[in-house]
Automatic annotation (TrEMBL), chains A, B:
Domain of life: Bacteria
Keyword annotations: Dipeptidase, Hydrolase, Protease, Serine protease
InterPro entries on file: Class_I_gatase-like, Peptidase_S51
Family: Belongs to the peptidase S51 family.
Protein name: Dipeptidase PepE
Taxonomic source organism: Pedobacter ureilyticus
C-alpha cells in the first residue's frame, strides 16, 4: 500500500493542500491522472465545483483530475485508476454514497493492490476501520458505518485539545473518544491539524509537525512524536 | 404536552440542573416520582450511577427517581409513569437503545398524552424530529436516526458560535447545520447553553438568558429573543 491519510486539507491561513505538496508529489510519483472522490461535499458544494478545486491544485504538479461522479461505470473507473484523492466534508454523506453505490470494497481492494491514495479529513476517516470517530454531524443515515480499514485503527481528524477557556459544557474531543472506547475495542489516532499518517507497504508512521495523541481501551491516552510507527 | 428540552444539564461552574430548578418544579407540579432514562451514559457511566446522580438532584425537590433500566417490562413502566427525565450523554447510544428496546414510540405517545418530560442535551435531541443535528460522536450504529418529534423541528443543543481565535479548520457548528439543510428541509433550533424549549399544549417557546439561532432552508440564519414562539 502507498497512502497518506491527513488530518486536514488546509492549514490555517494557507492555501488548499499546500503544506502537503512535497509529500503528494512523492505519493503520486509517475502518476499523470487521478480520480477525485467528491462525495463528502463540504458546505454542500457541487461534485463538479469540488472536483475543480482539487484539479486546480493538482494542475500545479502536472496531474490531471477526473471526478468519480463523471463516470457511468464507477467501479470499473476505480479498478483502472492510477491514483485517488478523497476530499473532506461530511463523512456521513461520503460513507452513505460509497456504500449505496457499492464502491467501498472495490476502492479498498484497489488501494490494497498498491494504487496510491490520498485522503483528507473525511477522506482519512474512510481509511480507518469504521467512521465511528468522525467529528461530523450525522446529516444523512448511511447503511453502515464500516470503512476500508487501510490501517488497523480508527482516525480522529482535526484532533482538538480541550479548550477550558470556552466555559462550554459540550463534551471535549477526548471525552468523546473515551466514550467510543467504552463501546468499541479499537485504537484511535487523534491526528492534530498538520499531521498525517503515511503507509508504505506494511510500514505505518505518523508524520507532520505536532505530537499525535493515541487512545486505547484500558490505557491512559498518550502522545507519540512525529515519525513514530503506528 | 408539557415538556422542557434544555440545551444542557449544567451551566459552567454550577451544580447539576440548578439553573433549571424553578422550571423543573413547575413542570413536575403534583408529581412525586419520575422515570429517569439513563441510556445516553455520558463518559460511559453505569446506568445505576447515572440514575443516582439524577436522584440526588430530584430529592432536593421531593421527587423520587427510578431508572428505566431497573424495570423488567419497560414499555409498561413508561405507560404508567408520572413523569420522565432523559439525561445527556451520547445521542447515538440513547437512540440505539430506545429503538432496539422498541421504546421510542411508547415514550412519544405517553408524552403526547400529557405526561411531563424533561430532556437535557441528548435527551433534548430525541424530542426533535430526528437526531441528525446532534453534536455527538457516532460511537454506535442505531437502527434509525428517527426521534419522537415532540416539536416540529430539530434541535442542536450546546449551540456554539464560531471561535475564529482557535485557528482550527474543523467545521463550525453553523457550517455543519447548513450542510444538514442541504440534505434535509427541517428547521433547526440552535440552542445556546442556558436556554431551553418549553412546550405547554400547543404553545412552544424558547426560554432562558440568551438569543437563539434559527436555521431554515433558503433563509439566512437568524436570532430570536427569549420568550419567542417557535
Amino acid at each position: 500500500m502507498n497512502i497518506i491519510l491527513a488530518s486536514t486539507s488546509t492549514l490555517f491561513s494557507e492555501q488548499y493542500l499546500v503544506y502537503l505538496k512535497s509529500e503528494i508529489i512523492v505519493l503520486f510519483k509517475g502518476v499523470d491522472e487521478i480520480i477525485f472522490i467528491p462525495f463528502a461535499r463540504p458546505g454542500g458544494i457541487s461534485h463538479d465545483n469540488y472536483t475543480k478545486k482539487a484539479a486546480e491544485f493538482f494542475a500545479s504538479i502536472n496531474i490531471n483530475v477526473k471526478g468519480l461522479h463523471e463516470f457511468e461505470d464507477k467501479a470499473t473507473a476505480i479498478s483502472n485508476a492510477k491514483g485517488f484523492f478523497t476530499g473532506g466534508g461530511n463523512t456521513f454523506l461520503l460513507v452513505k454514497t460509497l456504500h449505496e453505490l457499492s464502491l467501498m470494497n472495490v476502492l479498498k481492494t484497489t488501494i490494497e493492490k498498491g494504487t496510491p491514495y490520498l485522503g483528507c479529513s473525511a477522506g482519512s476517516n474512510i481509511g480507518g476501520i469504521n467512521m465511528k470517530t468522525t467529528n461530523d454531524m450525522p446529516i444523512v443515515y448511511p447503511p453502515s458505518f464500516d470503512c476500508m480499514g487501510l490501517v488497523p485503527f480508527n482516525i480522529n481528524p482535526h484532533y482538538l485539545d480541550p479548550q477550558p477557556e470556552l466555559h462550554h459544557n459540550g463534551e471535549t474531543r477526548e471525552t468523546r473518544i473515551l466514550e467510543f472506547l467504552t463501546q468499541n475495542d479499537i485504537k484511535v489516532v487523534g491526528l492534530r491539524e498538520g499531521n498525517w499518517i503515511r503507509r508504505i507497504g506494511d510500514q505505518i508512521t505518523v508524520e507532520g509537525t505536532q505530537p499525535t495523541r493515541i487512545f486505547e481501551r484500558g490505557k491512559m491516552p498518550y502522545e507519540i512524536a512525529p515519525q513514530s510507527s503506528l
